[in-house]
Amino acid sequence: MNTHDLFQALGQQRIETPSWGYGNSGTRFKTFAAPGAARDVHEKIEDAAEVHRLTGIAPSVALHIPWDEVEDYAELRRFAESRGVSIGAINPNVFQDDPYKLGSIGNPVPNVRERAIAHLLDCVEIMRQTGSRDLSLWFADGTNYAGQDDLRARKRRVREALQRVHDALPDGTRMLVEYKLFEPAFYATDLFDWGAAYAHCLAIGDKAQVLVDLGHHAQSVNIEQIVAFLLDEGRLGGFHFNARRYADDDLIVGTTNPFELFCIYAELVAAEQSSDNLTRTTARNVAYMIDQSHNIEPKVEAMVQSVLNCQEAYAKALLIDWERLAAAQQAGDVLEAYRTLTDAFRTDVRPLLAEWRRSEGLPEDPIVAHRTSGYQANVAGERGTAAAGGGFPVKS
Amino acid sequence: MNTHDLFQALGQQRIETPSWGYGNSGTRFKTFAAPGAARDVHEKIEDAAEVHRLTGIAPSVALHIPWDEVEDYAELRRFAESRGVSIGAINPNVFQDDPYKLGSIGNPVPNVRERAIAHLLDCVEIMRQTGSRDLSLWFADGTNYAGQDDLRARKRRVREALQRVHDALPDGTRMLVEYKLFEPAFYATDLFDWGAAYAHCLAIGDKAQVLVDLGHHAQSVNIEQIVAFLLDEGRLGGFHFNARRYADDDLIVGTTNPFELFCIYAELVAAEQSSDNLTRTTARNVAYMIDQSHNIEPKVEAMVQSVLNCQEAYAKALLIDWERLAAAQQAGDVLEAYRTLTDAFRTDVRPLLAEWRRSEGLPEDPIVAHRTSGYQANVAGERGTAAAGGGFPVKS
Amino acid sequence: MNTHDLFQALGQQRIETPSWGYGNSGTRFKTFAAPGAARDVHEKIEDAAEVHRLTGIAPSVALHIPWDEVEDYAELRRFAESRGVSIGAINPNVFQDDPYKLGSIGNPVPNVRERAIAHLLDCVEIMRQTGSRDLSLWFADGTNYAGQDDLRARKRRVREALQRVHDALPDGTRMLVEYKLFEPAFYATDLFDWGAAYAHCLAIGDKAQVLVDLGHHAQSVNIEQIVAFLLDEGRLGGFHFNARRYADDDLIVGTTNPFELFCIYAELVAAEQSSDNLTRTTARNVAYMIDQSHNIEPKVEAMVQSVLNCQEAYAKALLIDWERLAAAQQAGDVLEAYRTLTDAFRTDVRPLLAEWRRSEGLPEDPIVAHRTSGYQANVAGERGTAAAGGGFPVKS
Amino acid sequence: MNTHDLFQALGQQRIETPSWGYGNSGTRFKTFAAPGAARDVHEKIEDAAEVHRLTGIAPSVALHIPWDEVEDYAELRRFAESRGVSIGAINPNVFQDDPYKLGSIGNPVPNVRERAIAHLLDCVEIMRQTGSRDLSLWFADGTNYAGQDDLRARKRRVREALQRVHDALPDGTRMLVEYKLFEPAFYATDLFDWGAAYAHCLAIGDKAQVLVDLGHHAQSVNIEQIVAFLLDEGRLGGFHFNARRYADDDLIVGTTNPFELFCIYAELVAAEQSSDNLTRTTARNVAYMIDQSHNIEPKVEAMVQSVLNCQEAYAKALLIDWERLAAAQQAGDVLEAYRTLTDAFRTDVRPLLAEWRRSEGLPEDPIVAHRTSGYQANVAGERGTAAAGGGFPVKS
User: Which GO BP terms apply (chains A, B, C, D) (predicted)?
Assistant: First the structure.
């Protein structure tokens, strides 16, 4: 790929940041309040805009409802646009109301399921008002003990609810169905893996696609292979990027195994260039979203770092010599194929990216630019330190 | 469930034992030759017949081709029937010929794929000749290094091969598509999880169903939930029973976590009694097969123990009070539901099973009967100790 | 073992319940407030006393400081005794104060370490005042990113702090050093496994022993083997009992794999009867403690169930035929040895336990007794539903 | 670090290759015979010499006894030296003789244990004759079923055997005690983790150190932290390098997560420069050894690639800015510390390494040099394709 094409590709990369990544978050043990952490959706959008100003590739922000609930979503949309970003995916929350203790759309009680579905449909309406394309669906639903509920019945309840929401989606929009191995359910999670999400999507319709969160798999699962499988089936809808070693650790994407992130991007770049229409179209419509929970990191800086890690992985994937790779694969030359892939990974793309940023009028080193900008000190001064909770009790 | 119904259900349980479980097998480090281990398919069938004589619920034996290749399969079928067992699933082997080094049906080289497909079609012919209903398909196919092959291309090759075999299946037969997380491939396995197997089955046709091997999942995966999901979708075809703690350890089923085996049987018993036609029919046609690799255990005794562990799990599942369970689930009474399920598990079903065996004219304690029968000493005398290999080099 | 000896052994079993198991707790996503959940240490002690009344084997309650901080610990001790229970282990909390964001005794900043050590020493003083024998030490210390801190330096800081606390322990008391694979640290945890805890204990002195929490291991680790190893080295101090499938799920002990809990008790019963002085003494001084976080279960009922599950596992372990087992082991009779162990597990000990309870004047079925006692309705009425927090933000 | 010091450090790096990496090896399913694979110890040494000629940092070869058994070890030593390499670690094999079916030094039968110990002592004698410094001890010992053997008794047998071998070691030599989570034992492995190996080493004496095999840990375990812990305790003896995603996959080191390999080398480089005597001395005496099982790769090329992957990781670790790192750590600047570490990892060290090779008279690109040398074609012609076995049965 020549520099012109490289720069063009880099200019088209998009990483959506999540509103909830700018506020305080933590583990069940403790949430450490961060000075300057955003306190409401407007401050979150301002932080997201700062990340986009610094990186140039983070032009949208995902919302979480009701965390980001406002009276007037059209106004919110204008506010975002005035700051240079748009509203991205809408993320309904059906896990924090008390009736959801034993599940939302999988709950044995019909009224609770209806309440959850009503909230999902409200979020479809918010999509209309904010111009959002994607309804991003994660459910905490599941059980903690064998026998607690009927697994087949729960599956059917989930299917029915997804169908109803699917059928309410306006044309040109879609629902992204996320799966997760566990947490907060510890025996069985209703949408437990990509296969479960895929089976539901296939059954309910074309507007349903699978969302891959990098932290939601069992140990040792090959995520890039799931990505390749879903791309080939035309059912990969989007990502929740983050990093993990243990469980759903929600660390900065690319920090645990940067080679894995590169391999995932390699599948996506290959699919973007595929001669197969479905695969190519699917790849080009993937929603790249970050979903992290910063416990100890400065929020805005952590988000900039996350975007940069994705950019680096993508840039390396763009450098893969696909012809050499295909030739080695066809020849069964295992190690030459491995080296062809890893030659791209071994390349230091930082100079290339600095040059691209210069060409785009962006700061050459977004981290340095952020650190010297005074942004963090400013927001700490203006916003102060919001109170933070945390799952375990503290001495009253 | 009253005793009459219990006994009837117990009398209908079926566990198929594998021919390869009666010969020498081992780890990559060493195969310890066992005195009396079966040396050919006739001896394997005789051992399988002994297991059936002792337990009464193991009336068929699975074959592995070419390990069990013979000139005349009609004769083999008669031989088996003369010993009181029938030929069960046919298991093609497309992983031990040298051309399969980089895969069989997923291999980048068309000739190798054709060779593999030809063998699979040969096995369909063997099904006809032996009266077998099930073609049991496991593929070692995969890659060891990122970049080694094109993951989407491999998926498409696998799809095409499965389609061709599917379309050659006689009416009334089916193919069971097995999946496995890893081994012998260590980067990516073409049929890597139930979702991959399910997606292929769905695409290729009604004669394709998923086979669940208890040792082929990532750590912590909830197998009974996969079972429930596949039952509800009408795509659960069969099991390969064994036990594991770490990888595909291939130990005696039920030895690592007997509660998990019980939970799996609980899903099956519930599905057998389901009001949903598809679920009920699917459950009643599940092929229950053992697939183990005995490294240190006496082969026949290990197989009897395996069958008994399945019987015990099934008997406990039959004792579940489904009405009480459903009521607790509907009421959201988490701990009452857990106790309802586990009350059945806590029950000691050994007296019940001994009584059932008496009523069937079977030995009350099949292990004691086997140990006192002289069978093991007899075969050790007749067969001697067959030479055994093993993966790692030995001093020549 | 005859019934007299069995009953005697059952009468000596002890399970300590944790004060924090009676209050609201949850996941990082949400804490569902439970009606009647204990709001302060006195209510927690009353709940613990109810569990002891019902089961007869839960005569002590562990405290968490500062969650259970009071002005007058002598008074608290008397209060507990007046309710029929005693104060058990003291659990310092050095993970919820803001300065502990990057660690407590492993923190790079000396002042923070001193603050943590001062709290630990305060807890030693609370031990004196409450008559507690065990200082139960869990540290959330660790790092989230490679490079975040110097791993060897952290290790040395932890060693020094443990040494200082150890040396302050009164005679006849001890410190139990807990380890955990991860959470809330997601790159490296300072006390990351039993080996790390053991190495520290060995270095600092005889009053330091290892505490095994059943939920703190990597997937597939054999916990009973760690128990056996530590018993043989004289360094097993205690347990935190709970159950898990995935991470530190903190479910009711024995619910995921009851056979594993049985195997752990089997090691303990064997060690209690060992001819080796060190092993036997160590086993007899093990502190059996529950550490669970009930998210969806009724708190007191969940605790009764937990105690009963431990009792059942212990009773089964008492039934092991050790002579038959040793003979099979010596003979290398793998399956006979397995059957000898599992014969005990297969036994339904519920009738035996009901009889023992009758003989002790306890309710035959503690769960039924609890459910019919009105206790839960009473506390719900008296205490109401305490506000509950939760890690993730809620819409203000 | 300036270029002079870098080059000096690079010139001192050492990676020992294993004789068994040059012969045929495979999985339990199949060993694919490779053309030109070494058939005896002399051919293996010639292959090892080729790897050293190409890389300049692989000057020794580990032996496996009895796979590499010869009449005259002094002659073998001279043969190796004539080829430019020396004899490295001696690896006894106590897992392939039939009496070891239920273990070697942990076997319940005293005679079997004596046989194993005698072999270990023979290997000590081979150390003398070959000038080897390290006795590298891996034991397959363990059990497959709960109850199969007494875990504490096995531990004591292992301790006693290790003690006897330790006490027979000549001055200036040592034993490296390897641990492994599982395989070929699937319930419990006698030396199951670093803690078990460490506890034994500590008890038996100063010549015993722990050997870390990168493929022998439970999922998600932080290996670099174990390395740091053992370095600080002065008990890290050596490595068996390889890569894995799932189990003990024995792939080419650095291929699954190159960042992890870098983090391990970062700990070693830091320790080499430590002001602590014990840590520094320990680090400088670490034995760096490769232990891989090439199933599908060309043997010599795979070994060259392995050495290069280690070299690259080491070179990157040498580039870490330790002062900047320490400053960030002290300041609690989490992300600056992460970036400091990863700046070194992000650097493309291939030009630097090419320059170092030129300065050493080595081929700039060892892989290209190997591929164009005709070595592989030559040995394939001379040696042909040796017969290969494999764990599972083949049709006779």
Answer: L-lyxose metabolic process; rhamnose catabolic process
Residue D184 preceded by cis peptide, ω within 30 = yes
Shared domain for A275 and A352, answered yes or no, is: no
Tell me which chain B residues have a C-beta less than 8 angstroms from the C-beta of C345: 258
Q: Contact, C241 vs C286, CB < 8 A? A: no
Q: What is the pLDDT of residue C386?
A: 84
Average pLDDT over residues A114-129: 98
3 state SS of D288: strand
Q: What average pLDDT does the segment C56-82 reach?
A: 98
pTM of the model: 0.98
Split at pLDDT 50, 70, 90, the class of B395 is low
The pLDDT-based confidence of D396 (bands split at 50, 70, 90) is: low
B356 plus B314 within the same structural domain: no
Look up the domain containing C350 and give its range: 321-364
| CA-based nearest distance B351→chain A, Å | 25
**Residue at A390 is within a domain:** no
Q: Give A-chain residues touching D259 at CB under 8 angstroms.
A: 256-259
| Maximum distance among all Cα pairs of chain D, rounded to whole angstroms | 69
Best B180, B182, B187, B229 residue to mutate vs chain A (most A CBs within 10 Å):
B229
Does residue D2 fall inside a structural domain?
A: no
Q: Which residue of A has its CA nearest to B279?
A: A152
Neighbouring subunits of B (3+ Cβ pairs under 8 A): A, C, D
The answer on pLDDT for A343 being more than 80 is yes
Total number of domains in chain A: 2
Q: Are residues C107 and C196 in the same domain?
A: yes
Is A32 within 8 Å of A378 (Cβ atoms)?
Answer: no
| Chain B: closest CA distance from residue A280 (Å) | 12
Asked if C260 reaches chain B (Cβ–Cβ under 8 Å), the answer is yes
Whole-number Å distance between alpha carbons of D84 and B256: 51
Residue B300 sits in the same domain as residue B339:
no
| pLDDT above 80 for D366 | yes
Whether C27 and C148 share a structural domain: yes
Task: Give the integer Cα–Cα distance in Å for D359 and D364.
Answer: 10
The whole-number average pLDDT for the span A279-291 is 98
Residues A187 and A233 in one domain: yes
CB contact B391 to D (< 8 Å): yes
Q: Decide if B348 touches C, using CB distance below 8 A.
A: yes
User: Is residue C106 domain-shared with residue C153, that is, in the same domain?
Assistant: yes
- Cβ–Cβ gap B220/A267 under 8 Å: no
Assess if residue B223 is contained within a domain: yes
How many contacts (CB atoms, under 8 Å) link C and D?
165
Minimal C-alpha gap between A316 and chain B (Å):
14
Kindly determine whether residue D146 and residue C219, on different chains, have CB atoms separated by under 8 Å. no
If pLDDT is split at 50, 70 and 90, which confidence band does B388 have?
confident
- For residue D145, the domain's CATH number is 3.20.20.150
For testing contact with chain A, the best of C98, C109, C112, C144 (most A CBs within 10 A): C144
Residue B1 banded pLDDT, cuts 50, 70, 90: confident
Nearest to A393 by CA among C32, C247, C390: C390
Q: Quick check: C396 pLDDT over 70? A: no
- The distance of D80 to chain A (nearest Cα, Å) reads 28
Residues D145, D264: one domain?
A: yes
Contact C335 B222 (CB under 8 A): no
Cβ C184 vs Cβ C140: under 8 Å: yes
What pLDDT digit, counting tens, does each position of C285-309 carry?
999 999 999 999 999 999 999 999 9
CB B286 within 8 A of CB B268: yes
Residue B246 has its nearest CB partner, among C220, C312, C348, at C220
* Residue A396 counted as domain residue: no
Burial C13-37 (b: 16+ CB within 10 A, else e): bebbbbbbbbbbbbbbbbbbbbebb
pLDDT confidence of residue A388 = 77
Looking at residue B33, what DSSP letter applies?
A: P
Residues C289, C88: contact at Cβ < 8 Å?
Answer: yes
